[in-house]
TrEMBL record:
The gene is priA. Its EC number is 5.6.2.4. CDD domains: DEXHc_priA, SF2_C_priA. It comes from Siminovitchia sediminis. It is an enzyme of class 5 (isomerase). This is Replication restart protein PriA. Zn(2+) 1 binds at C505, C508, C545, C548. It comes from the Bacteria.
Amino acid sequence: MTIAQVIVDVPSAGTDKVFDYAIPDKWANIIRPGLRVAVPFGPRAIQGFVVGLKSRTDIKNLKSIRRPLDLTPVLNEELLQLGQWIAEETLSYKISAFHAMLPAAMKAKYDKIIRRTGEAQLLLDELFEGKQEITWKEAEKRNLLPALHKEIENGNAEVIYRVKNRARKKLIRTVQVNAEQEKLEDLLETLPSHAVNQKRLVQYIMQHPFETMDASQLAKSASVPQETIKALIKKGIFKEHMLETYRDPYEHRSFERTAPLPLTADQQTAIEPIMQSISHHRHETFLLHGVTGSGKTEIYLQAIQEVLKKGREAVVLVPEIALTPQMVERFKGRFGSDVAVLHSRLSIGEQYDEWRKIQRKEVKVVVGARSAVFAPFENLGIIIIDEEHETSYKQEEAPRYHARNVAIKRGEYHHCPVILGSATPSLESFARAQKSVYHLLSLPKRMNNRGLPSVSIIDMREEMRNGNRSMFSIELFEKMKDRIEKGEQAVLFLNRRGHSTFIMCRDCGYVMQCPHCDISMTYHRSSNEMKCHYCGFQSGVPAVCPECDSSHIRYFGMGTQKVEEELAKLLPEARVIRMDVDTTTRKGSHERLLDQFQSGKADILLGTQMIAKGLDFPNITLVGVLSADTMLHLPDFRAAEKTFQLLTQVSGRAGRHELSGEVVVQTYTPGHYSIQLAAAQDYGRFYVQEMSMRKVGSYPPFYYLALITVTHEDLMKAVSVTEKISAFLQSNISDQAILLGPVASSIPKINDRYRYQCLIKYKREPNLFPALRKVLEHYNTQSSREGFSVTIDIEPNNMM
DNA sequence: AGCACGCCGACT
DNA sequence: GTCGGCGTGCTC
């Protein structure tokens, strides 16, 4: 007998192991590693992943697999191994890792029903309303559970657990005419006179003969309702076929094919080692450091072309917010229908279909966000990560994996190159390139000898001293006016949405805080409400100070809404588009706003983070950064790096084509090296300077970090558990490692839960991971019911 | 995670 | 005496 080893769909420390199941004979040829199966688990039925087969087991009362949920494995041998590796590296459960690697449609839904088994009885008839079964939910709602419980005990009803497979394929109904011309004519006469639709449809198909046709399209063309077609199917006039199809998110778009562009000398030099690696079937990680507009994408495209020529496949990762139609167009334009696109703005069904195209080998290239790194290709020839420094490549929920590490792992397996591209590489990557762990490739110049935009730094303290209390410096204001007159476009960047960052009482200093989080609330003018950007709590705006009843309430700080208002006042002739989370929540709104801007329906694009990337519009000649300091003062050792990256990225939006660009950076700390060096577009010097800061602070890339966060509703409980964990870890690490804390998190309370944490900085600590594992096992099983949550983040993006 | 089993307080 | 509160431990 063969036994299946199964990882069950229960994310907990106690169940994070293999469970053995017997394979019923009828499934013996189907059940293989990588397949999803429905298995009994305690009283329930749940989903599981087969990870292996074996011939014997010590388990006494072995249960059997109920049924397979797939016909072919959804995870191949490589991905099964990769999942287990991710679970180890990120200290998460195997089941969570498997789910992260698959489209959401593969995650099973469960339902629970009560079915009657006994003979017809008066009471049962009443409970079931004459039906054979009712859902648990319905029984709960109608408060029937106590009565039903008795019937279950008496053996008149049973509880059935069902695993629902959500991975549904979309089917379309097609029809073929299954009747001679004569028969149709007969029908036309015999149909009753009121059957107008059927008559019209028969006439239509007599005039427009066809082989096979999509039923809904036929209904539309003949202008009859769908039911008419069904009626004729019943009469045997049509033969129907259900045809499997894909939900195509780019159905109504056509992409113009592009040919490879001639490479510049710099591009040629950069691409050469990549081509070598491809042709020698060799794994190597390249860091492609190229200034904005230096033509990195063309290198990607030509490297991919080479990979396709060799009959292998390519994965391109792009930050989620940069996955604009513009970006997709570049790949679809070059490789046409060989491209699948994967990102979170697709519906679950669309994601599943794109994934199936990859699995069935109908595409050769995948362009996608973080999770596309798991594309189930079996013959990978290259993995490209564009904007490799982007923090969105690290998943913020468990499993907290970094797509860069996963890509390199897969590159090793497939013996293929991994390209990390950026104008502002993360310090970690650049340091590895310096140590020749990665192979550094540089593109120091912009394409076609276009100069980098000129950057001027404006000291806002100086403006203030000169009596300008507006949010725009004289220079920025004049330049905006100038662009509007010339019909050119400007981009204004502010890393903060809402209207005012906080409101404060001028008499007593009261600042309105979120009652659930330890953070000040942001004023939103459009809805006239105070919002907490952490938990979403909203409340009205106080007319008087809740503390001292004073009416002197002032609005401090500026957000995008406030800037929009100011622009309307100061530059009423300017047409402004605002892009932030508040204006782009609806599906497709992101794309629509950018289209409007591109087609010249606005002069100024005002926005947050999301406009910093990938915008490539020829008419932008001015970029204004309203406050370069907002990020710089965050309690984060990467604040300077993030500021540098952001300023460099934003500046790169200007003057990418014929017109030259200018950038105005407003700041209260003009002397800071991250601002100065971003203005000079001098990555090299920034790297040296920032590395020395990191060394002094014992931060990455000199040390690795592990952040342990404990949350609890009760402050004292959170503190004491963090202390215990910290003491335990201290005794399990060497004196090479540094343990900091316990300290309150930089946001000490979110959603009514207090947050305490400790941080470990380490270099080589073989005992650390086993110790962390123990912490999780202990606190997540025993204490979860006491309301603790303990999370461990290896190499955290931020310390909050 | 769910669910059953089991051991203590407040009711018909 | 029993119903039901939720603490404990198991699920192949």
